[in-house]
């Protein structure tokens, strides 16, 4: 996309690697001479009169869009008058300055309505020399480089050092040129965003199809002409007549996990995988981020679990929307937020894996919150769920066909995700090229304006 635009006639060295050469007539000015900074704060949660008003209160969790018109939390005028949060007039550039997200990106947005901020945010209000929308595009187009320049080293939580931010030299074209660049980018990035959105919708549909394929295979089987009978279970409906109905407590045994003491270094860094919920991102597990030693097995609550067991997360906030399950491909151990299901001779572990995936929504219905708000799946409820159980040879046929069908869906999903990644890279490259003057868009005409020109000429 960048290649179809011409370059400026003359350039000069900006003195910074991330900008490279910039057009000769552009200015290079430290940000502190172009704007004013303001911070925010959190009104006391013990004062209900500060909350649930009509004034947006922006925190990092709201920074998922480039324009802010509403927020999850709102405060009252009294909160502004009596706490550390301040009112920010519309049109400022809002920046997250303290958050784990700063490991890889800098969330920025412009507020289209007056807002207040929490302490992890900064508002930047620019003078007449710099357009806020243009400054936002500069930040978006050069995030990787700016993160290196702005991030505070040695902080326990990722944060942006205001001094580094203020001293950063920005490319500053004439104001009318900034306006032209931002209009160009508004139009061109909207096209890319539309493409990305369509691809994301496709991925959503593919995930739904994947779930439906699994659910149908493990509850209805492969033969569309099989005689059916009522299972007596509302969510399960009819099942093939020759299938048995069981429950996890009869079809497998349960093994819990634990955590060897972190204080004993002899327990850690061995060659035995120690699986926790953070490892449960794939269907088949042969490794884990953490490993333990044989000494940990002998002197702690962890147990060695054989291959072919189905691992399931039973505690954690991920249970709010998902039930991670995986099949063990090697001998391993698990932590206390997990359970291992060891199938008996009538149940294949891989079939159980897909059966639990197919029953995801029904398992989620059993999830409840503990006293501390953590989501839990209690064994005494889960182990009594209806479990459709075909003969073992049919389980193996279901697995084979499922894996074949799912591989095609997964390949299409992977290709779509690749397309999204390429589109995002193209978007970033286009923004970077425009805001650093690598392409000249001064003669660019908006699509609607082009149409009007053609009609006038006719």
Description:
Helices cover 35% and strands 21% of the residues. It has twelve helices and 26 strands. The strands form nine sheets. It has a five-stranded mixed sheet with strand order 4-11-8-9-6, covered by helices on one side. Strands 16-23-20-21-18 form a five-stranded mixed sheet. The chain has 458 residues and is of the alpha+beta class. It has helices at residues 77-82, 132-141, 143-150, 162-167, 175-220, 248-251, 294-299, 349-358, 360-364, 379-382, 392-435, 447-457, and strands at residues 11-13, 21-23, 27-30, 35-38, 51-58, 67-68, 73-75, 93-96, 108-111, 116-117, 121-126, 169-172, 228-230, 238-240, 244-246, 252-256, 268-275, 284-285, 290-292, 310-313, 325-328, 333-334, 338-343, 368-369, 375-376, 387-389. Helix 2 packs across helix 11 and helix 5 packs antiparallel against helix 11 (392-435).
Helix content bin: 25-40%
The spatial strand order of the largest sheet comes to: 4-11-8-9-6
The general outline is elongated
Structural class designation: alpha+beta
Biggest sheet details? 5 strands, mixed
Whole-number mean pLDDT = 93
What portion of residues belong to β-strands?
15-25%
Distance between the termini: 29 Å
- Runs in which pLDDT lies below 50 for 5 or more consecutive residues are none
Rg calc? 28 Å
Q: How many DSSP helices? A: 12
The total count of strands amounts to 26
Give a nutshell description of this structure.
By secondary structure, this protein is α+β, with helices and mostly antiparallel strands.
């Amino acid at each position: 996309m960048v290649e179809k635009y011409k370059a400026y006639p003359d350039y000069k060295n900006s003195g910074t690697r991330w900008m490279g050469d910039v057009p000769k007539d552009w200015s290079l000015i430290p940000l502190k001479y172009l704007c004013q900074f303001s911070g925010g704060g959190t009104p006391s949660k013990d004062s209900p009169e500060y909350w649930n008003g009509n004034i947006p209160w922006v925190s990092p969790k709201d920074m998922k869009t480039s324009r802010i018109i509403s927020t999850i939390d709102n405060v009252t005028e009294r909160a502004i008058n009596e706490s550390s949060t301040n009112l920010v007039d519309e049109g400022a550039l809002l920046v997250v300055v303290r958050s784990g997200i700063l490991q890889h990106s800098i969330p920025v947005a412009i507020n289209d309505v007056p807002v207040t901020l929490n302490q992890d945010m900064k508002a930047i209000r620019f003078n007449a020399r710099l357009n806020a929308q243009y400054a936002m595009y500069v930040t978006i187009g050069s995030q990787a480089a700016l993160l290196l320049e702005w991030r505070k080293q040695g902080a326990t939580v990722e944060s942006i050092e205001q001094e580094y931010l203020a001293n950063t030299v920005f490319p500053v074209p004439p104001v009318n040129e900034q306006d032209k660049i931002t209009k160009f980018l508004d139009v061109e990035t909207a096209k890319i965003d539309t493409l990305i959105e369509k691809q994301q919708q496709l991925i959503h549909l593919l995930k739904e199809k994947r779930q439906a394929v699994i659910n149908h295979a493990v509850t209805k089987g492969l033969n569309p002409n099989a005689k059916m009978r009522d299972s007596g279970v509302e969510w399960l409906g009819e099942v093939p007549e020759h299938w048995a109905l069981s429950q996890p407590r009869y079809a497998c045994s349960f093994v819990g996990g634990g955590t060897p003491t972190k204080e004993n270094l002899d327990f850690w860094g061995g060659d035995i995988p120690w699986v926790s919920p953070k490892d449960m991102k794939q269907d088949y597990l042969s490794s884990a981020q953490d490993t333990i030693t044989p000494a940990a097995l002998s002197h702690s609550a962890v147990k060695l679990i054989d291959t072919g067991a189905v691992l399931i997360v039973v505690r954690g906030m991920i249970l709010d929307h998902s039930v991670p399950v995986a099949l063990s491909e090697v001998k391993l151990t698990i932590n206390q937020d997990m359970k291992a299901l060891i199938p008996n001779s009538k149940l294949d572990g891989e079939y159980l894996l897909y059966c639990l995936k197919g029953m995801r929504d029904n398992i989620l219905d059993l999830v409840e919150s503990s006293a501390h708000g953590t989501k839990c799946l209690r064994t005494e409820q889960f182990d009594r769920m209806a479990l459709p159980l075909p003969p073992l040879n049919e389980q193996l046929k279901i697995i084979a066909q499922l894996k074949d069908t799912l591989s095609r869906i997964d390949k299409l999903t992977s290709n779509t995700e690749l397309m999204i990644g390429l589109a995002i890279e193209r978007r970033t490259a286009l923004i970077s090229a425009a805001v650093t003057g690598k392409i000249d868009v001064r003669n660019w005409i908006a699509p609607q304006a082009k149409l009007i020109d053609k009609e006038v000429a006719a």
